[in-house]
Structure formats: structure tokens, C-alpha cells
Amino acid sequence: MGGGYLLIILVLLVVTNGITYGASQLTSDGVSYTKNGETITVKKALDELINTSLTEIDSLKEHAKVYKYAELYDAVKVGDYVDYDAGEWTESSGMPTKQGEFGGYKSGQSKNESVACYEGTAPTYKGWRVLKKEAGKVYLVHAGQPECYFHALGQSNASMQLLQEHTGVYVDSKYATSDHIMTKDEAEKITGDTSDTSDDLRKTGANYWLATAYNTNGLWSVYAYGSINGRNSYAFGLRPVVELKKGILTTGKGTDKVGNVNAWIIA
User: Fold this and answer.
1) What phi, psi does 246 have (nearest 5°)?
2) Burial group, residue 62, by CB count within 10 angstroms (0-12, 13-18, 19+)
3) Residues 28, 11 share a domain
4) Residue 50 belongs to what domain range?
């Protein structure tokens, strides 16, 4: 800015043929000087100086900007959507038709989306919601079902082992520590009972398995209208639960990757 002050001072008094004129008698277009062989008017010099200064001021403002963050744990409540990204499927897997098979998705398909495990049974919802908050950590559950699983009659022990080993599929290591398939206890705690419910944290509009055995034949499952029952020999959906790390931050609400417009954005 020092050069600017000098230039302004030069404009105040101009001597021509021994006569001193006040700056008010001259125009910035009418006074010029030569630099490196180029004639530069005072107006041009001042314009360049002002533009440069404004650019520098804008840069300083940007560097000095204070971004406000809040801890996700403090900001969210149970049922809220969170813009968590579980990534994409790296290979395709057809609809499961036999005991122990997982599938129902295509390569490149987002794991944040929902799939239908048989015709006309796609869940109403997609994305990730807060299932619970415990010990400073937020647990997210898929709002719908990103994949399907086939459980057959009399195979509860085998299915339980497979479901318990089905981990790491939805973990983004930057934000999450682990994942697992939703259990009967987690589903029941949403409403406190096992009956039909209008609570869409449990009622998704589609049937899905829970990672809890009903007996040696069946697994617990949630029906399309939200009730919890024992079933077997079907291809139902699975709802993964993701445990986020402590101290995850949010910048507020916005639109998540599957179009939910009121989701908390992870910083």
C-alpha cells in the first residue's frame, strides 16, 4: 500500500511550466507519467492499485475465515439421517436362492441405496440413520437394505455364523470402526415391543432378517409393517449397523449422497 500513498501525494500537487495547480483543477485522466516507456495515467494507476488491494483483502478474508464445527454426537438425535458413504459394490451378485447366499446388487452400485430382494419389495428408504448413541459414539443403521440373504429351514446355526462373520463390508475406515448386521435386540429397542409400528426407523416397507436366531429352524425378522417375527426359507434384506469413531464432526445439515435433504454432513 506504500506505493499507493506516494502516488496519491504526487497527484495532489502538479507543477507545469512553473505553475502549481491544485489537484481539484486536474483530472486523473489528464495527469500521466512514463514508466518503462509506457505512458500511464493517474486514473489507470489508481484503478490497478485499488483492484490489487481488493484482491489482497479478499484473500486475507478467506484465510482468516473461521469454520464452525460441532461434534456429531452432540448434534444428532435417534432417527436423524447422516451423510455417511459406505462406498460401492466392486462386483455383482445375483439374487440369493440357496442357504447362506448373499446378493441382490450390481457392480458399481452404491451401498447407500436399497435393493429389492424379490419383485416389488424394495424398501421405501435409503441412506443412513442414527440408530443409537452410546458412550460418546454414534451408531448408524441403513435406512433400507443394501443387500439380500437367503436363510433356509433348519440352518439357524449356519446362518448365525455367516451373519456374524459378515463384517467390514460397510466400513469407511476414515469415519467408522466396525459394522454388523442389525440384531433383534436393536430392532426391538426402537419401539420397546415386537408389534407392527409406524416408526420408520424399524418399518422400512420390506422384510429383512435380524442377526438373531429364533430357534434351530428360523431367524428373527422384521416384516414390511414393522412387526418382529420368526421366519425361514426366504430371501430377505439385511440392515447393516455401522459404529462411527468418537469425535466425528459435522458442518450442519444438507443433502446426502442418495438425495435425503435433511441429513447431517460429516466434516
Assistant:
1) -70, 145
2) exposed
3) yes
4) 2-64
Pair 87, 194 in one domain = yes
Query: Residue 84: helix, strand or coil by DSSP?
Result: coil
Half-sphere exposure of 29 (CA within 13 A, CB side): 0
The CA distance from 231 to 151, in Å, is 9
- Give φ, ψ of 106 to 5 degrees: -120, 155
Residues 91/95/98/100 CA torsion (nearest 10 deg): 50
**Per residue in 59-104, pLDDT tens?**
666 655 555 789 999 999 999 999 999 999 999 999 999 999 999 9
Sign of the C-alpha dihedral computed for residues 111, 94, 179 and 130 taken in this order: positive
Same domain, 184 and 80: yes
* One domain, residues 74 and 181: yes
Query: What is the pLDDT at residue 39?
Result: 83
N-terminal to C-terminal alpha carbon distance within the chain: 38
pTM of the model: 0.75
How many domains would you assign to the chain?
A: 2
- What is the distance, to the nearest Å, from the Cα of residue 238 to the centroid of all Cα atoms in its chain? 21
Does residue 157 sit in the same domain as residue 83? yes
